[in-house]
Amino acid sequence: MIRVSISYGFGNENRYNLSTVPKNIQLALYKYELYSESKIKELQENNININVVHLPLDTLKRDPYDMVEFINALHYKTGVTKFVIHPNKLIKSFVKYWMGFQLSEQPKYQLCIENFEWRSNKELRSPLKILEYCIKYPNHIKMCFDTCHTEEIWFDHKILHTLLPYISVIHLSNRHRRQKHMPFNAGNGDLNLMAFVNHLKFIKWSGDIVLEYMPDYSHKLFKNYYFLKEIMNG
Question: pTM for the whole thing?
Fold first, then answer.
């Protein structure tokens, strides 16, 4: 089963009235300070499903015990089991710490490590590096495959065949040169993401697709959400 969501945040830059927001979202907590139980409650009162949580960008700079407790609190407040994290410095040590908790319990959460371009100089610099952890901890570590962070070679069908079983979340957006997080079906996009989406449907991939657009394209976000749901359900 494929669930389609939009990325939605609590910051001042949030552009959407809750009455118009699609019922499936990735809650983007890019800053730790944005977390608010009252805002979580407001989402729930508007019958909005939180399918994925994007953890704060400075997660790995914080005490790992505090972040595990933060994730626990988010799970118990929302029921979310998928948490996206960037592969910044200290990601390897955090995964080790994380697994110390997870292996003592039944599989409960998925830590979904997001891929970035090789030139971004992250601690895990390619999907293959993330894949090593996915294979080692298949019930607890998954990949968040961000299409606009991905070099074209990774869209090769044979390579995708290897990656997709370990991908739990897809951040779907296009790019043009250095411009990123454009509509996935943008006519001037560098990536053929319509073919990618149709391939996901053809092989019956199961997971979460999140439309993650820059503010300049917010006017196309909802339209693309319903268009993508129609493709996947058609």
Answer: 0.95
